[in-house]
């Protein structure tokens, strides 16, 4: 018998290890949990700072004794409403931390199927076991396609994972991360151990501000600008950062020559890509000469996700060239992306491709399209 | 903004142990949380050791700022399978503590509709806001109907609430509580602050043992024996403690002259009373001269619950006499029971009454009836 | 193997009406299904027009072959949100019929735990296996306490069950049922076979109108007026029919000398009775000389339910007198109520009794109290 | 107000009233419902036999009046347990038909997010809005890579969709479909209108038998053999049809020179591909010279799905060649697949690719791997 106030539970004084407390515990997103190897043979190195990550195991221990709920019906659940007629539910081990900001609710939870997960306003933001798919896809293509990126600006990104991935590029000298919600940033700094190093990296400048205001007030331009914003949700503040005028008047003037812009672009599945993905793509086509939509299935989002990269400089690389640049520039090994994977991600299936080619909608402040509470979301 | 790692969350500072609290909090089931007054005007004094108890409030603070999930769709749930085709789901604030014993899983959770709740093997055992109904009903009638109870034996009862209620009787000199699961007892001693005083009361003798073995090995007899056992669940160990032979050969010989036996007796609703209630009643009728079934609706069990009191001594008191004895003998005020309430609880509705009068089933080891995972349960 | 488009599904061949089933079935709420006897030994005669009713069986057949989903994890569910943090979920066999009116959504479903159930706006109205508790409690006390009731007026009651129970009183010559929602009434006439006879009874006058308008426009007075209205829900139309002025200015003038008014009064559990029950009780106390609150646990509502009876004539009967009147006046046998049961229902437990005695709130149009989507509800 | 027994319900013919039955209803998978155009701009022609298909609309009517549950909280749900700690829940409009066979439960339901869906043993088999992804991917690559396929054998496939897709190939003269469960086949013939034409096609030979027995007993060989079997589920019969010896001793001898075998191969997502996909791939590598794994995200399965194609003849075609063959050979237009899409599907991402290259497990009867109730499944 083990009282798990500690193991799963709570902190205290000088607990090191995995106590989710604080005191002096210092390492690990996973709160210092070493963990059983994921059953799929994937090692998620960057996420867990050198620890392998648990997938199916309740608290990361290799149990010799039974652990809570093993082999029994689950009774604790996290339930996400993807659409009002579609739910996605994960068995819960623990609700690790919760917080409330001026803008949103935030929680760090420990789920059985996806490990630790960051939830904002009832929407899954990222999970321990597959956030690498989202963040590698968001960050590395733009930086790799750029011939020599030295500076990057992140709109949103308060979780810290986007900054973490950018900082793996040795050539990048400066990253500005601009998120509007100080509390989310503080929460993530405190609890997402996997990003702790990134948050304290001297190349990172962290700003709490509205992204538009911040960009407009700055003198410098950037090699890469990354939109890690909430989806355009009705009533949310972010949809204004997906409009043609914003791209034209705010983003483009702040890109250096040969600069590249990339944004997360919502669900891109066969059934969901017309919610916002096709429209973001078409809007960027109005503003940039070269626009490259791409997508990948993110399991914890229960959908294929989309990103769009755009530039006035041609975006053409062979798989081999991509692999070479990844090898030369990036610290550590990528888990999801390589040259072949990216070129495949950028080749949409017939159904989505046809649909994008016919899209005529352009985002303006008057004609925004919105999305129901879907996955990657929130702050800016 | 408040990071609730503290309030809801986890310890820090010098908090040792599992106190989900702050700094130096040392007492309180509610983990040192004071709390807003329940919206129903009921004050639950005994449960919270002098603190009023929250009902609808997430963590007991009187918020001036919004608290997590207020006004939003709930995303964390506790789900109980009452039958395999019937579920009862409570929004969760926190999973406070979890543990595993040789026999069962145990958890202390903080729910929105019912406050803190003890869960064993996925079954709700008792909740902060209504456990007084179950425990007052289990304990006080037998003790009050006895002319002068000095000793009591509890079969099961590891949660400690049954002992707590018995110890309110000033005339009781000795309480033996015998539970088979040391870990459950340790868990409850540690986390159920409301019962902490009872656990350390010098009149309480706590034994870890099988109730049958313990009773048989003892020389002394008791004025009152209380069955606070798990329901007779298929495959569970407890159904053998509901049989005619057990009542005849083990219980009865250990009752003093005029002694009274009482047992929880499972669901007693119009639709559920034939699962086990009517049969326990009928079984006791084979063994004792006077048998008194009674019931009350326990909201968190989603059903009317049943108890059966039995004795060879007549069980007859007027409402006024009951009230007088309660006043004379019991420390503090009861919340649910008084003379009138008990006489009503012991007057079953026509549908249940008819059904009980026709019951012919008798519990033996060969002919046990079982119940699906329903409410009050577990250890012995 | 049986394709159950038939068995579970609905009609075919010459089946007219909604008979789920077979050939020439013509009567029965249960749609002509004979059925296995309920496991609790209760026979629900009036509900099923002479057929016994299934409880745990999926479609009323005594299967010799396995039936859908037997012994397997359930995958179809009806989910009711009792509060926004409390859910009650029934495994579904079928969604039998659905409809939409100007005011509300309506559905007749076949559930595993409670048999067929009428759902309006996502709230359980009544279920095959326990509606007798609600309707016997609503109707018979007022009619029995009246020395010789000849006429009754129902506010709401579109389901038809209230009328059905009234019509069992041989002395009643005229029942006026006034519901605002024609579609609900038509739906129930069509699909609730158990009430078909009542709907076509010549003593019943059915009016589609607002209850207030109807009462005010009528010349005659009634011996009994019954409020079978929706709970006072925020934004709903019904809360105005729970106010002091309504009782004083509309109800009272339409009661004959010695007339009795009774209304359903919302949840009356230990944790829920202050939502509206205590206030409806206190409001009626301002208007009538004699007011009698009573309650009973209704399993499918997951709560104890309340009713309040009021008159300027004393309301005092012994259990034996009640039994005599039931025997003399009512056709068939009641399942839930008899003299003892009613007197018990009218004796509230200590916790609720205290709370009612202290209630000071009076319903006015300005100071209404509201209830979350709880059980018995809807139209008027 | 519209009573939707019809609209949502089913057939009609001479059935009057709302009987969801059949009587003489004769047309339509969608039960004669035409339907609103899917919101994503995809037209699903083949599935609905010339009717466009609804996606977000409750019953396919273009409502001028509100429809059931619009704008309200959903209360009817289909819940699938993907893993025991992961659920996927669709709001339900109707449970259209249910049946029970010797082997399994079967249901046709109408869901809000995915339209009509076939469910076997609580597992989603295919849905109206995205089954084309699964079935185009299963069928067309093997047939297109073959230089001139004249005959095909389907193991399983009782739903009929696999046969339907094969029969679109003009060069195919004979299709043998061999499913073990007559009742499933009968159910699908009766209710899946979209496949009705395929079921009555004279080029189709339908056999009820075990696939192994059937193949072994036949003299002829086939150009293409397709495994549309249940996943290898513990206790299920199908895992023996994924073994090395089966491929070697049963499949291979029945393939013509240049013959191609293809099988569905379970989940192939980043987190799930090692459940069975990598092992099926590796097993086929032991038996065939050329093995081509490929995958695509199937939204209603909540995962990326995998297939493996294998042959002793080289599998190499350019995108343009694939497009040419599709155009020449296939009747109508494919929705999901073209040359580019297939080549992308056959290029796995880095994470999965690495993992497959390292896979050493080989399916034998002694060393099978199993899968929890995941998606495409079931009979044969």
TrEMBL record, chains A, B, C, D:
<dbReference type="InterPro" id="IPR037163">
    <property type="entry name" value="Spermidine_synt_N_sf"/>
</dbReference>
<protein>
    <recommendedName>
        <fullName>thermospermine synthase</fullName>
        <ecNumber>2.5.1.79</ecNumber>
    </recommendedName>
</protein>
<keyword id="KW-0620">Polyamine biosynthesis</keyword>
<feature type="domain" description="PABS">
    <location>
        <begin position="75"/>
        <end position="312"/>
    </location>
</feature>
<feature type="active site" description="Proton acceptor">
    <location>
        <position position="228"/>
    </location>
</feature>
<feature type="region of interest" description="Disordered">
    <location>
        <begin position="48"/>
        <end position="67"/>
    </location>
</feature>
<keyword id="KW-0808">Transferase</keyword>
<dbReference type="InterPro" id="IPR001045">
    <property type="entry name" value="Spermi_synthase"/>
</dbReference>
<dbReference type="GO" id="GO:0010487">
    <property type="term" value="F:thermospermine synthase activity"/>
</dbReference>
<dbReference type="GO" id="GO:0006596">
    <property type="term" value="P:polyamine biosynthetic process"/>
</dbReference>
<comment type="similarity">
    <text>Belongs to the spermidine/spermine synthase family.</text>
</comment>
<dbReference type="InterPro" id="IPR035246">
    <property type="entry name" value="Spermidine_synt_N"/>
</dbReference>
<dbReference type="Pfam" id="PF17284">
    <property type="entry name" value="Spermine_synt_N"/>
</dbReference>
<dbReference type="InterPro" id="IPR030374">
    <property type="entry name" value="PABS"/>
</dbReference>
<dbReference type="Pfam" id="PF01564">
    <property type="entry name" value="Spermine_synth"/>
</dbReference>
<dbReference type="InterPro" id="IPR029063">
    <property type="entry name" value="SAM-dependent_MTases_sf"/>
</dbReference>
């Amino acid at each position: 018998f083990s009282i798990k106030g500690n193991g799963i539970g709570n902190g205290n004084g000088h607990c090191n290890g995995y106590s989710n407390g604080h005191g002096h515990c210092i390492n690990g997103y996973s709160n210092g949990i070493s963990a059983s190897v994921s059953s799929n043979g994937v090692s998620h190195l960057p996420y867990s700072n050198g620890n392998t990550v648990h997938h199916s195991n309740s608290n990361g221990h290799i149990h010799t004794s039974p652990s809570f709920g093993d082999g029994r019906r689950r009774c604790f659940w996290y339930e996400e409403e993807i659409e009002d007629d579609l739910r996605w539910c994960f068995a819960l081990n623990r609700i690790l931390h919760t917080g409330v900001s001026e803008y949103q609710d935030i929680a760090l939870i420990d789920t059985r199927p996806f490990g630790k997960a960051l939830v904002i306003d009832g929407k899954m933001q990222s999970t321990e076991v597959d956030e690498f798919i989202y963040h590698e896809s968001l960050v590395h293509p733009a930086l790799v396609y750029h011939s020599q990126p030295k500076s990057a600006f992140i709109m949103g990104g308060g979780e810290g994972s986007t900054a973490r991935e950018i900082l793996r590029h040795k050539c990048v000298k400066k990253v500005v991360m601009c998120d509007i919600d100080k509390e989310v940033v503080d929460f993530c700094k405190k609890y997402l151990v996997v990003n702790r190093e990134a948050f304290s990296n001297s190349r990172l400048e962290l700003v709490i501000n509205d992204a538009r205001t911040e960009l407009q007030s700055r003198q410098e331009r950037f090699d890469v600008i990354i939109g890690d914003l909430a989806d355009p949700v009705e009533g949310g503040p972010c949809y204004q950062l997906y409009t043609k005028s914003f791209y034209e008047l705010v983003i483009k003037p702040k890109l250096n020559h040969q600069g590249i812009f990339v944004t997360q672009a919502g669900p891109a599945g066969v059934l969901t890509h017309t919610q916002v993905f096709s429209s973001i793509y078409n809007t960027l086509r109005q503003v940039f000469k070269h626009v490259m939509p791409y997508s990948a299935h993110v399991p914890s989002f229960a959908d294929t996700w989309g990103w769009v990269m755009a530039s006035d400089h041609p975006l053409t690389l062979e798989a081999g060239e991509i692999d070479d640049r990844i090898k030369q520039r990036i610290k550590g090994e990528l888990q999801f992306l390589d040259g072949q994977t990216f070129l495949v991600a950028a080749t949409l299936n017939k159904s989505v491709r046809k649909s994008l080619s016919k899209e005529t909608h352009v985002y303006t402040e008057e004609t925004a399209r919105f999305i129901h509470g879907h996955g990657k979301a929130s702050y800016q």
